[in-house]
Amino acid sequence: MTTPGAISGATTLFDKLWSEHAVCELDNGETLLYLDRVFLHERTGSIALQSLHAAGYGVRDARKVFCTMDHIVDTFPGRGDATLMPSGTDFITATRNETRAANIRLFDVDDPNQGIVHVISPEQGLVLPGLTLVCPDSHTCTQGAIGALAWGIGSSEAEHAMATGTLRVRKPKNMRVVIDGALQPGVTAKDLVLNLIARFGANGGAGYAVEFAGSTVRDLEVEARFTLCNMAVEFSAFTAVIAPDEKVEAYFQGRDFAPKGEHWRDAVEHWRSLRSDEAARFDRELHVDASTIQPAVTWGTSPEQVVSIGESIPYPDTFAEDHRRESAQRALAYQDLAPGKYIADISVDAAFIGSCTNSRLSDLQAAAAVVKGRSIAPGVRGVVVPGSRRVKKAAEQEGLDQIFTDAGFEWRDSGCSMCFYAGGETFGAHQRVISTTNRNFEGRQGPNTRTHLASPATVAASAIAGSFISAEMLAESESLAS
Ligand SMILES: CC(C)[C@H](C(=O)O)[C@@H](O)C(=O)O
Ligand code: SF4
Fold first, then answer.
1. Gene3D superfamilies, alphabetically (predicted)?
2. Which pTM value belongs to this model?
3. Whether the predicted pLDDT of 4 surpasses 60
């Protein structure tokens, strides 16, 4: 075991965050990292807490551990403790009992701050720039958007994290993804990240911590940056980070758990040092021209199987690698799609707006702007699930719930809902769902359900048209028809 030395020379943002939390280097090449926060949810957190308890260990510092109910609880309005998952009640009860016993703050179903773990942690200032945060959930990388070092772990790592306030980690390499250029109207962070994964592959970030940089990223609002970093795990990256800037400072000002007064000033001074040095070297650098990107939708069962709205489903033999050809064939069979078919000619059965990728207020605003004054196509089912109870309340104050329900959408309580079948909610077998979520794997939204990922505006427009369409194309087709 050696003590880590001070870092010298030009350094990346990720390396700064890492070295600020390195307790020591271990003989096996791993680093022991100090953890500022541990977040839990009732699906995996209950398991970690129960097994920590059974092993006779306590939580080292419960003030740094937080837990929410999001994955298993129903999102039907007035849900109470209901869950469609067969053993769901056991998870809910265990979460309550174990968090109470360990003195951990739980955002329970009726708590006004309850919501999806990755939505509520920044919303309340529980994660801040420069902090380390782990959670037994793969989309914890979302929090890198504000300059935190946040990554998903397994349940047994969560036990170690809670018992010791540290974790052993093997350091990934540094990748920078530089995104420059102005986004075309209607193109969002979701379209950006889907295009990135399509171009460099769902495995493109494996072994790396990714820093998103460039003028396009700087121009994104903080909530859109969460969308970008949320899908870093779908790019197989260890995590993603974005240097905090004045937008991030404004975002945190006044949040419940954000530092106040003199502590705020000290914190901000530190945040301003959290950026890659000019001469910092990255192990790999990718460049993306954002101005060429169009609204995107996935056609297959991997987030790399993407087309722009207006294109057609690719022929499997156009893929160079064997595994991509095979995966395309299998995806086409599962999705019941024929190569060569125009994506705009495919009808949808359902539309889902929600998940830690796209359920924040700005996402709901973007979808509502499309939905306003229009109605869902006959036979299409639409569901909107705000990411947190706070988002729900803010949306209702602006009348967004009314816009959605007037158009025929269901307006739900917050949680993971139909992002993931684990909670038992589904649109049903063979239903084609356009969804603002992050995973389109086989069975992700229920047995034999067909998922197509897209941005909130595209999902809203497609629900109205009853087929895949972007908001811009919907407006154009309506003006031609009138
Ligand atoms: C249940 C949980 C462990 C899982 C994850 O790790 O991401 C879920 O949130 C998901 O999105 O698949
Ligand atoms: S919303 Fe979906 S992706 Fe996000 S944590 Fe919940 S299940 Fe996972």
1. Aconitase, domain 3 (3.30.499.10)
2. 0.97
3. no
